[in-house]
Amino acid sequence: MKIPVLDISQFKESAPLNGVYINSFSDHLRRNKNLINKPHSHNFYLCVLFTEGTGTHEIDFNTYKINPGKVFFLKPGQTHYWKFETQPQGFIIFHSQEFYELKFLEYKLHMFPFYYSYQNPPVLELKSKKLKTLHLNFKEAYTEYHQTNLFRELKILNSLNNIYIELTREYTVGINLEKLKSNHYFHILEKLENLIDVNFHKEKLPKFYADKLSITTKHLNRVVKQTINKTTSQLISERTILEAKRLIVHSQDNLAQIAYTLEFTDYAYFSKFFKSRTGMTPMNFRKKYF
User: Fold this and answer.
1) Do the domain assignments include residue 90?
2) Rounded alpha-carbon distances, angstroms, from residue 132 to 15, 129, 167, 168, 236
3) What is this structure's pTM?
4) Reduced to 3 DSSP states, what percent helix, strand and coil does the chain have, rounded to the nearest 5?
5) β-strands 5-6, 41-42: how paired?
6) Rg of the chain on CA atoms, in Å
7) Residues 75 and 102 in one domain
8) What mean pLDDT do residues 61-72 have?
9) For residue 231, what is the domain's CATH number?
10) CB 139 within 8 A of CB 147
11) Of 19, 45, 98, 182, which sees the most CB atoms within 10 A?
12) What is the pLDDT of residues 103-127, one digit of tens each?
């Protein structure tokens, strides 16, 4: 059994717009309970604002608390799961990359830090005053989506852009933005993450990625060290472990088959690799998770 990958079309109601879906969270939960009651991923971007409710949100095996003022961001492919203790309220937005980038030709989604790198936290907590402002922004987008007024798509896009700008300003409080903009290392990091995401099954050595980026392995390690204080090997290992966890928990394959899927020479080596980075064997991880 593979992890379900949900598409925006599965959530749409009447008079949809291609590539976008906006709803109140309570209505979204009520209408789509059968789609989202187990771990799943999406082929679109997701942004959720909670104004009420408590619980937990698991994203790629990291658990975050849900409470009023929390905002969550997911990129395509990330696996997540909600678990609520009290009734949630708020707003949820889905959209494809094309919905945003085809209209804003000079801007890309990766310019927003929460969509920029998997190393950046997928969560933000808003203070009370800012929550009120963002609540109004989300409500405006929600209202426009559920009406059929002239220039509806354009207004939704403008609302979405305003939301992302406001969230970025809160997300980057305390960060030297001039240093961030001028540092081309971050662009190399982004390319590296994309390359790893596509090639990590077969290519587990830094030299492959350095060659693809037309730089030396030493320089690539310097880039990764200065941007996120890790090594290239760590990034490759982390992506491999994440995929291993997804397969161990969400597939019915035996562990030897999972080792083969991830292109390890044998299960013993895979088990040793997994334990050295997680502190437990693949079997123990599967048992603990459930």
Assistant:
1) yes
2) 29, 5, 13, 16, 40
3) 0.82
4) 50, 20, 30
5) parallel
6) 20
7) yes
8) 96
9) 1.10.10.60
10) no
11) 45
12) 776 778 888 989 987 888 999 999 9
